[in-house]
Amino acid sequence: MVTGEHSNMPVEKNITLERPSNIELTCQFTTSGDLNSVNVTWRKGDELLENNYLINATGSILYTQYMFTIVNSEQMGSYSCFFEEKKEQRGTFNFKVPELHEKKKPLITYVGDSVVLMCKCQGCFPLNWTWYSSNGSVQVPVGVPINNKYVINGKTANETRLKIMQLSEEDQGSYWCQAIFQLGESEEHIEIVVLSYWVPLKAFLGIAAEVVLLVAIILLCEMYTQKKKKHSDDGKEFEQIEQLKSDDSNGIENNAPRHRKNESVGQ
Amino acid sequence: MTPKPAGPPDGGWGWVVAAAAFAVNGLSCGLLRSLGLALPDLAEHFDRSAQDTAWVSALALAVQQAASPVGSALSTRWGARPVVMVGGVLTSLGFVFSAFARSLLHLYLGLGVLAGSGWALVFAPALGTLSRYFSRRRVLAVGLALTGNGASSLLLAPALQLLLDNFGWRGALLLLGAITLHLTPCGALLRPLALPGDPLGPPRSPLAALGLGLFTRRAFLVFALGTALVGGGYFVPYVHLAPHALDRGLGGYGAVLVVAVAAVGDAGARLLCGWLADQGWVPLPRLLAMFGALTGLGLLAVGLVPVVGNEESWGGPLLAAAGAYGLSAGSYAPLVFGVLPGLVGIGGVVQATGLVMMLMSLGGLLGPPLSGFLRDETGDFTASFLVCGSFILSGSFIYVGLPSALPSCRPASHPGTAPPERGELLPDPQVALLPPGGPHSTLDTTC
């Protein structure tokens, strides 16, 4: 059972429907003018509906009610009540089957790996689920268990899982899961990307080579500075030895050590 | 006439070691924290619950901390440099192995055990080596290295998300293996340093290498007890601060803000406290007890914050409490490592660092599950934060028992023992007689 609302702006209401139901749509229209001059019609889409509706006027409010039954998908769609006074006012009821939750990110997988695609319907229970894949515009049903490649199962009635094993690059592309209701279908799109291990491996090897280079540079630099330090240390040690010698021989007049102090010895 | 080893250089190559330790911290602890981003993809692929995949991170953390003494024992025997380099390769192998995982068990082994062991080999040796390079500015240097954690979260978390979006979790783990391989060049930068007070020869036995003998010193024993208690509460906010904020009524972004405030306060405080501690105005053990107590009080405040009225509010009281907690916890972190040389001497610092990590791991294994259990029993996190705040407070209370007068770390206070600079005349040929024997030198006064 549904009722309409009234306002000064175009009114629209979305209704989710899973199973065949009896429907009662009500629109209310308020105007200050003459109620009898208002023309009331009901349409489904653009098509004018002939019977099954009531019109009632109480005080300054005009009621109209449309009763019908929805049993198949052709009867789903948009139903509108029209009030024609100076300008046309309408209220619209949109009947849709439950929509599946939209996932956005593509699934990244690798060759030889397996992947599970899952579709879930919140609070609704489809009669059946099907899967198909599309490369471009061609839609191919998916799920026939050839070579143990595909397994379809679902843990509960409102979800379905498609497991694809032994992925290869041909499995890449768009996959659709479709929930089938008595009153229509709704579907969801999942994309699979199948990469070869070589893709990240290239980057890995590049970075590993850079690391090896870094380590080599660090160790070589250190060996180089150690060698330099050893040279200067040797030179300085020699100077110290000379200094002590010259201090020792201070009392004795001997210029020779002082000269030798200034020589630098290589290696 | 080889010169007697000089004291800690307090600069120079020490800053390079600080940078290396910063990177080590970022690539180990920081990476571990960001790993949580990959867990949902893993749960989806292997069709396991979030709790099962959370064990991957928990196992890696547990192995890293519990096996830390092994890392420090190995580096006591062979020097920090080769151990850290090997640790880097091991961690990288762990990630590469787990990239090809066919089941969650492979991930437990690859990430949990292999990578965790690699991390155990890198953290304590790097941090211990850093402590040896500094004396007057040690706590600042350690604080600087410890901010690697926060910096890594800023850089690696978005990078990891990018990798996940472009390469899937397998490619992301493989490339993380390449990134963690950079631990090896960091290890190469850890030049060995000879300091007075170093044990004369290699440790006599593996047990001695572990440094368990350090527990016979009263000061270290008191410290160990306090730290084990603090560990029981320290890690809980890492896991439960965000859920607690959500519980208290903040929206998603409000919770993010709370965590960010705590993280920024933590990172900034590490540097600030490092600088402050080095000024020497307050003895380090007193600072340690004070900031430990403040952290505990901060967590009590976080737990007692009232429920926020609506989701739109910016959660003032909780933000203030989280900020206070972050500032205190950040100040506490470098002090834990900075106080070690005074307690065990510069020769035992690497071993002590490993033991500290192990002690905190005991609490780390106990704290978050206990907190989760309390949450399930009582319905919200109040009890959890009260309990972990009390753990930290009691640990800090024990810290009060530490000796307040640690041996002075100022090198130039004694005449005639000015550190010999390279290439100049030696001081009086009065070679200091290093006492013979045991792996634990009694020259605690050098620090």
From TrEMBL, chain A:
Membrane-spanning parts: 197-221
One Pfam entry name: I-set
Chain positions covered by the region annotation Disordered: 229-267
Top-level taxon in the UniProt lineage: Eukaryota
Biased amino acid composition, Basic and acidic residues: 231-248
CDD domains in the cross-refs: Ig (cd00096)
Ig-like domain span: 10-81, 98-193
SUPFAM superfamilies assigned to the protein according to its UniProt record, in alphabetical order: Immunoglobulin
Keywords, comma-separated and alphabetical: Membrane, Transmembrane, Transmembrane helix
Identification of the protein by name: Embigin isoform X3
Organism: Balaenoptera acutorostrata
From TrEMBL, chain B:
Topological type in the membrane: Multi-pass membrane protein
Name by which UniProt lists this protein: Monocarboxylate transporter 11 isoform X2
Principal location listed in the UniProt entry: membrane
Segments forming domain Major facilitator superfamily (MFS) profile: 14-407
Organism, as annotated: Balaenoptera acutorostrata
Location of this chain's protein in the cell: Membrane
Residues passing through the membrane, by range: 12-32, 83-101, 107-127, 139-160, 172-190, 220-241, 253-275, 287-308, 314-333, 381-402
CDD domains on file: MFS_MCT11_13
GO cellular component, one term: plasma membrane
Keywords: Membrane, Transmembrane, Transmembrane helix
Molecular function (Gene Ontology), one example: monocarboxylic acid transmembrane transporter activity
